[in-house]
Amino acid sequence: MKATTIGFDLAKNEFQVHGVDAAGKPAIRKKLSRAQVLPFFARLAPCTIGIEACASAHHWARKLTALGHTVKLMAPHFVKPYVKANKTDAADAEAICEAVARPNMRFVPVKSVEQQAILAVHRVRSGLVAERTAQLNRLRALLAEFGLIAPRGRRALMERLPALFADETLPGVARNLFERQSTRIRQLDAEICAEEAVILDWHRNNALSRRLDAVAGVGPITATAVVASFGEGREFDNGRQMAACLGVVPRQHSSGGKTRLLGISKRGDGYLRMLLIHGARAVIRTLERRAKGGGNPTDQWLAKLLARRNPNVAAVALANKTVRVIWALLAHDRTYDRNWSGQAAATV
Prior knowledge:
By secondary structure, this protein is of the alpha/beta class. It contains 15 helices and seven strands. It folds into three domains: 5-100, ATPase, nucleotide binding domain (Nucleotidyltransferase, domain 5, 2-Layer Sandwich), CATH 3.30.420; 113-204; 230-254 and 262-338, no CATH class. Strands 3-2-1-4-5 form a five-stranded mixed sheet. A hairpin with a 5-residue loop joins strand 2 and strand 3 (26-33). The longest helix is centred in the middle third of the chain and has 33 residues, at 113-145. The radius of gyration is 25 Å and the shape is globular.
């Protein structure tokens, strides 16, 4: 029998394949080692292959696409409802095969090697920032145990350290320990700067990323992360779908014809959502200064929102608006105009 649809369950060493024919009847049930995967699919006629979007999924998607197959990636939580009875590799592969054939299934775009490379730099930088924050908090807490209160802020703390270490009441063992910790923090600073230099260089050489950099609240870090994650954003039909993918829209708990909106759904990439909301907070902090110059339509909308809602709510709302602007710039190949007005455009 010829398999037309295949569910491919990934693993480190042993992979499970479940295929069905055009009538939906099982045609393939097979376990493969890593070395057997590519030769096996090379012998098959071109077909649709479903894979969960997990570790190494984009790598295998590129490899199988090169063999002539149509590969579709799906979020694991969309596949889980199709698992029957107990969870096994064979059951997972069967569930993937069934899920990929659903006409209303949502798919994840396959990333290129370049996209994955810059996202890897982002992940390393994010980890280094978290490690630096932990080191700073640890050093600050240990200094407080000796009655030495450090100022708020990373830069203020690092500038004050020499004076704190010079305190005569500080034991030599503790002083040596804290000096080693401060050295480690400076090393982390240097490593973070090195990764940011790589990101900035990629940003300068990418036209899509430079286009997003003009949006308020979006800098090179956010712009490169968005472009590396979504490319031109063509997999979304509109900006709201992109905002929903990033979890900055309200989640619903509606029933009986009554609509009930809750907090944001927080679905999708938490790292991108964090960057966008932090960028929105930066815009809010500088709103008063820009308002003196008259502002723009977005600033006027934001000022009215802040007059009636909490700043955190306003920051999320602005992040939602920013995502929709980003989608319009990417999908329609447009350049950002800070004074653009939807009402003015509608009258043209």
